[in-house]
Every structure is written in structure tokens, then in C-alpha cells.
């Protein structure tokens, strides 16, 4: 994209310059003139249908929202005739509405405009009677207030990409309606809240205390700006509080990633906070029963139990599973506790179960453990290769922005066994058999090489490993790869040519790449494609970018909640790294790497682990092979959990410490494209609960150690002294700048959004091609277990569902469904909507069948949001050979009678 040209214009006699293409409406706003514009929203394309923004430009009366500036144009907004024209247009619209449209105190945009123009409430004298729709838990439709401006319809199609809404009826009876024709709750709506947020009249609202609140309305009390605590997109949200409770969560218009958008989870799913099931007192197990106790007793008991475990088995007899849901500062303090108070590196976080192969693979290929580019740059790509990810459901705001890019002309290649949301818009959809990614990527690389679609200069100057890779790829011609993966050779060629011929290709990938027996190899083989194309660390593409699952899974790892690295990824085995930590912490850091999460469970079952601290993770619901996890928890002499609810894991604990949620915390998260953003408490933690930060400090004190870091801000500052890549970050800076990516070594300079523009962070500064052979997955279907199960997330829920199941989302998605292809449904006698049992070599689960062509024949798919369904009793202990990330994406199963 070339530089934007500035255009000189005049608005009401004032000269100003605006970028070429700016609408007269925006130009007027830039000149300080606010015009009514009922069909306009700066997140949407202009419609020019309501005629309320009329101005005179170059002598002609035009709708300002659809008229771009022209050089030297003279714009008039403030003449009596224009005022009258605009007022007439607004009055005409308002007159068709019932009186409540302009009632006193109505905060809606139309009511405010009428008040500002002196249009009396009595103007609204429509009869109403068109009815409404209150079938949906989060969206109410009042048809009488609809002015058919179409903002909701455009928000749904242009921003959200769901196309769930339409305008129906004729003339003055035109109103919005779900495109499917039935009740809103049964429509394609995914409850992003975009329609609620843009509606100017209150025709579409959120029920309850949020009614009438939109991101365009500034409430009397300033909302609290924070970062969403669900997925790794990192949407900036404004939390409106009334009478001590959360009235609404609104997407921030200036959110660096979300740009005024959000999804059903961040926007609406905060009912869990006040659930009667919320834990508000610590619990200790006595006589086999968990009983409420005071904090002093709980902390003293836990401290004694940890000390006893160390006395009996040494420091390595204790381990902690830190939390990717918790803040950076929580994670920093937890790993510091383990290393400083106990003297062990036995700390890990759930990136072990999702993106540890990304960290390992990206580090091996490029040098650092994060994605290579900023998402803003990915948005400029002309070809998107989306692999093993379903962002439309799992990262909805990213999914919507990717789809938007595709609708504006970018080519799209989707590689996923299922027909995920984006696949419906793909130019090429590759459907590899689960577990065959490495062969698929090698097949694409083979074609890039064979057809001369590589960047020879880049390979010569900036990469190593080409001869070895070339030799390996000789064994992956399209025909052989088609046999291995099930992807037709012609599709492989088509995909490789699109990626290979694009000017600025980008790779975005998810857990479908990492959660495999050879997940790290998958990441490296995928990275090969970007290196071959010279599309990483250069202006010829936007690299390789993982979509992180949980809100702070990147940050938990960045902060050193890992068994082999300290904050900033310095290895514990490196004497220089340990020496720096010793300077800051004043203790010797143990040099032996600690246990990974699966090894913690193995050690517990073997009697070697004597105490386990699980912070904000329901490992009995989310970790694979639940039966073995349960045995580990039951064998371990002392298990303590920090939790919001009595989770499946907490039920097997000896102590449970009630913790604050993301809406009640101070700190920072790091999102999927390495941006630090602030997390701020919108409301205080419920009485009796404490923040994880507070709990860790208090437990350290109970064990006789002052951990320092009196506040989260101090913790991040201390982390920066330990890890040079974070040295330029601070709460103050984030408060000023909003979001700052790492690496950020200097407080006076911006962080690096795009990595490796001069050199890669490998020892020789070159990207490394990986010649890793394809190896089969841990499980294959056979006569006893003929189907392949893939697990993943659905749009309305999050992970074990502990937060999303406690609120309106439950009505949107009430059970864990098993998607079965119609061929398999016929073969095994399964009917849509009926309970079905699924059995693997490891256990049995109960689900509800959904017959769908989303899955390929021979494959089934389910989520794991309802622990009672026992999905992770099915999954195996097979794990990535490099990082121990479980092979969630390939389990051989069979269907059985429930
Ligand atoms: Fe939160 Fe992710 Fe939804 Fe954004 S897309 S609101 S970060 S869950």
C-alpha cells in the first residue's frame, strides 16, 4: 500500500487537511462539527440512506457520509437551510416511532440527536404494534423502534461476517429480522453484540441493566478499561459498573486488536461472577470432606503441607501448575515462589497442552517463542493460509477480521479436516486426515520448490538448511502426499500456487497444528513454507502466527511459568541466566529443569510428588486421559487449588483457596500477537476471595519469605530487570500507550510488532529450514475403534466452561455435541439430537449426536466444555515428542449405546 495523500479542504470557512478518501462526515468531525448521521457508524461502510447528514459541498447538497472529499472542496454545514433539511429528515424518522423512542432519559442516539435539535418528545407519535422478539438471552428486538437504517445488518455482515440479519417488509414497515425467519434465538446469530452496539434507537438492546448502553454512549461514571479474560485475541473492553455490579461490558472503539468489536464471551459472559456457586471461603479437607475455614487457617495449613512435602522429598517433591488465565504478574510471582521459596523449577502452565510446540518450533526456526508479525500486518496480506484453526468460533474477533479481509479480496487457503467457518469462504480447502500435517506441509513445500516459487535470494542470504530440506522433500511429491493425507494432489498444487504466487502471504495457525504427537515438527514444517517464500522477517509477507488459546497463555510462558526457562525464556541451565536471576532475587536458582505437567502427574502416581498446587486450571476436565489425572491427584498427599468454583479438580483437592476473576484483578495480559495490555479491576473481588497475586504473597509470608513485589506494577518492573526483552514495559507506560508488543527492551522506544526485519534471533541470525520426516500419529483407527476423534472449542463456551456455563451462554449451547458425518450416522445407527456414548482405548464419554457434514466421513468432533460428558476420559497420553503437548487431535474411538 502506498502512502496516503492529504487533501486540503475547507469546512465552514476553516481550512484543514484530511487523508484522501475521507468522507465529508469525517472531515466535518475533524473540523469540530458533529452532524447527525443515523445510518452511519465508523466501523461500517457508508449507506447514505437516512439523509440526516446533509451538507453543501461545492454548491451541491449531498449526504456527507457517502461523499468523499475532493481537493479544495468548500463544505458548508451550518446554514439555516441545511439545518432545516437535517431537522426535517430526523423529525420524519422520529415521527413514525412510538413515544417511548424519545422519552425523557432515553440514552439512544436518535433521542440524543432529537434533544440536541430541539425536536420535542411529542414528535414521536407512531402507533407501534409491530411486536418484538425476546427469545435470545442477550438480545432483545423491539420492532416498533426500528428505523431500518441497516446498521445492525451491516455490522453483522461487514464486521462480524455472520450475515444473520436482514431487512424485511416494505416502505415504512421495513424492519430488521433474523435471516432464517424464525425467533432470534434459533437464528445464525453468534451474539457478538455488534447489532446491540450500533443500533441508534434502542430497537436492538441487551436486556437487564445493560439496556440502552452502547460503546457510542459515554455513561456518567467512566467505565473501566480492561482486557478480555477469555481467549488470546486480547479485546479491549469497557466495563460499566452501576450500584457495585457490572451493568455492561462494551467493546472499546479504540481497542488495538478488536476496534470496537467483541464476541459472546467477552461481551456478555460475566454472569459467572455473581453465581451462587462462586467460592467465597477457603476449604480444607477434614475427614474426607471439604469444610469452610478462615484464610489464616487455610494459609497456615497449606504452608505446613508444602513444608512437610519438601522435608519428606526435597524441593522437587512439590510442583505448581500456573494459570494461563491469570495475569502476567500472578504468573511471575508463582514461578518466583516455586524457585525462591521452595527451590524447585517444578512449575508449568497450560501452554504445555496447547502451544508449547509453537514456542519450541518457532524458537528453533526463527529464534523467539512468539508469532512473527503483528495482526495488523497480517490484515494486509493478499493470501491467508489458515491452518488447524477455527477462529470464527475459538477466536471470534480474529475470525471476523480475517473473513473481512477475504471479503475484500485476499485469497484464502484453509487447511483443516473439518469444514470450519472460514472454509466456507476458502479458495482452496485442504482436508488432511488428522495427524498428517507434516506430510501436508512437505507436500506444499515440494511444489514451491518444484515450480520455482521460492525466494532464492532470501534463502541464500537469510536461511540455512536448504540442501537437507530439498533432499527430504524429494520424497513428498503431490501423489504420495495425497495418499498420506487424503488431500487430492490437484488441491495441493492449487494451494501451493496461491501461497507461492502471492505478494504478501501470511500463515495463521492453531491447535490443529500443535496438539499432535509431532506437533513441534508440524510447526517447523509450516514455518518452512514462509522461509521458502521469503515471507517472514521481510516486506514480502507476514510470517507465521499462532492463535493463542487462553487469554494469557503467551504471557504465562513469557513470565517463566515453565520448568526449563526463567522470565524472558532464559534457560535455567544457562549459568549467565541464573546469575542474573540471583542478582535480582538474591538466591541461587536451581539449574535442573523441573517437571512438565504430564510428568507431574506421572510423578504423583509414582509417589514421588508429595504436593501439587493447581492455580486456575481444571485439569480433571481439560487434561487428557482423565482417569490417569484423577489417580495422580488422589495419590498425591497434598493438592491445593486456587479456584473460582468447586471444579472437578478442586473436588479432589485437600485445600481450595477462593480466587478473584479477571474482572476483579490488576495486572497485564499478553495477547496472541505479543501485545502487553492492562487488566484493571472493574469491581472488587467478592468478600472472602483474594487475588492470586495476594494469595501467593500471603502463602510465601506464611512460609517465612517476603516475596517483595508489593503490587502487580512492582512485579512487572522486577520482571523487566530479570528479562531484558521486557525491560521497556511498565504499568505506567501501558496506561499511557494502551498496548505495547515485546520484545521491548527500552522504555523510550516502541516494542517490536514485526520481528526479524534485520536478522533472525538464532545464533547465526538466519532462519532455519527443518528437514523433519513425516511420522504417523500415536493412534490410528482399526476394526475396534474405527473413527478418529478430534476435540476443540465451540463459539459459546470456553475450555471447561466453568465461567461460560454459568450464565446465558448455557442457553445458547447447552451440551457437548458429537458431530458425526451422515454416512457414519447411517452406518452406526446414530440419530441427530440423541445421546450417544463414545469409547476409546482409554475411557468412555457421553455426548449428544449432531449429524453434520462439518466432519469428514470416518471422523467425529466434539468440544470439552461440560466436564460431566467426560470427553477427556477418551483422549490418550500420547504427546508431542519434543514438548509433551498432548495429542488431543487424534484419538481412535467407536460409538456405543449410551
Ligand atoms: Fe474475548 Fe476473545 Fe471474544 Fe475478544 S474474541 S471478546 S478476547 S473471547
Descriptors:
898 residues, alpha/beta, Ubiquitin-like (UB roll), Alpha-Beta Plaits, Rossmann fold, 5 domains, 7-stranded mixed sheet, 30% helix, globular, binds iron/sulfur cluster
What would you say this structure looks like, in words?
The protein folds into five domains: about 5-95, Ubiquitin-like (UB roll) (Roll), CATH 3.10.20.740; about 125-275, 2-Layer Sandwich (Alpha-Beta Plaits), CATH 3.30.70.20; about 290-355 and about 550-665 and about 685-705, Rossmann fold (3-Layer(aba) Sandwich); about 375-545, 3-Layer(aba) Sandwich (Dimethylsulfoxide Reductase, domain 2), CATH 3.40.228.10; about 785-895, Barwin-like endoglucanases (Beta Barrel). By secondary structure, the chain is an alpha/beta fold. The relative contact order is 0.11. About 30% of the residues lie in helices and about 15% in strands. α13 (about 435-450) runs parallel beside α19 (about 520-535). The radius of gyration is 28 Å and the shape is globular. Bound molecules: iron/sulfur cluster (SF4). Iron/sulfur cluster binds near residues 228, 235, 266 and 395.
SSE layout and pairings?
Elements lengths: L5 E6 L2 E6 L4 H7 L23 E4 L2 E4 L10 E3 L3 H16 L13 H9 L14 E2 L6 E3 L8 H9 L5 E4 L6 E4 L15 H5 L5 E2 L18 E4 L8 E7 L2 E7 L12 H5 L14 E4 L2 E4 L2 H19 L4 E4 L6 H15 L4 E2 L7 H11 L8 H4 L4 E5 L3 H4 L1 H12 L3 E5 L12 E3 L6 H14 L5 H7 E2 L1 H8 L4 H8 L3 H13 L3 E5 L1 H4 L4 H15 L10 E3 L6 H6 L16 H11 L11 H9 L5 E5 L3 H4 L3 H10 L2 E6 L11 E4 L8 E4 L4 E5 L12 H11 L9 H11 L8 H7 L1 E3 L25 E2 L18 E5 L17 H4 L4 E4 L1 H7 L6 E6 L3 E8 L7 E4 L28 E6 L2
Parallel strand pairs: 1-5, 16-17, 16-24, 18-19, 18-22, 19-20, 21-30, 22-23, 24-25, 25-26, 31-35, 32-34
Antiparallel strand pairs: 1-2, 3-4, 3-5, 6-7, 7-10, 8-9, 11-12, 12-13, 14-15, 14-26, 27-28, 28-29, 31-36, 32-35, 33-34, 33-36
